[in-house]
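Hey L., structure's done. Input below.
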Amino acid sequence: MITYRTCRCVGAIAGLAAMLAVAACAPAPGTTTRPDPVQEAQPAIAAAEVPLAELIVHAPFPSFMMTANDQAGDYYSVVSKVTWSIAADGSLRLIGDGAEPVIGGNDETGDFDCGTHGGGFNQRTAWFPSTALFVHGGTLLGVSPAQGPKPVLRTLSVEPEDGSMIYRGDSARTPEYSYIPCVGATRVDRGHRLDGYLAGNDRLLLQDAAGRAMTIALPQPFAPFVLARYRDGALIPVPMRIVVAGVDVPARRVVVQLQATLGQSPAIRVLEVRAVLPDGAPGEGEALARYAERTRALLADLAQCRAPVEQAIEPCADPTRAPDPLIIASPD
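Output:
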């Protein structure tokens, strides 16, 4: 099978460290990548007409941005990574210093290896339609959803030529996306994917090496999003999806990779990575009641956004839609 993935790299702000990172896109393992002749002649013209969006990170975790071109068209892919430590009582604490970093360069030679940044290929893939789950030092038993039916775990198979993992079962999609099975710098020999995305308030049910039950629940609220400031003045919140989740039981760490995809047209001026987190507080001069009202409206707006299924670009990344006006704290 031939998979077309055409990606172009742009600079990005890398969260707490405020580093300038350059991302690249990698071909799917086991596939051949070559430019789509229909799309080949257009990017240079489009880029000359409208400047690329600027990425600004307000959330307390590292992030970067890529541009991509595939069957969805030209779009931005915003990637973030969030790290928590697991306390003795099983609760999670957000890590700032010492968090797992994102890729910090355009060298793709180690993309299929596991390093301190996890799997580079996973971070260079512009879009995933589902969440992959990897555990080191334990066994994933299932997912307990916050709402709806219990998600099915699809067991991934190892591709011998490069060590990536992909689902090869009866319900495999066309195309099926592959992952590098990394939990930090450790390559694991088992992995699963869901048919959709792990929600931020879902729970992972695990068993450690000694047979003890573990439940991984992200501190609530956890609602990362991208605020798109369109050139026509529209301000649109777009949810970020969990596309890779790794649990390192011996190291007592949980890491999730987030992703949001937004079309390059209509033109966007700024993409802001933001998040609703447990330690959120009112802005300067903002009353607590107004902050609570704004947060409730934002969470409701993000929750109603349908997930992309067959191709990239979030349906809510639309400047013509009308988010709840209570979301906007101030006119700017």
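The first strand starts at residue 6 and ends at 9. The chain has one domain: 6-327.

-- N.
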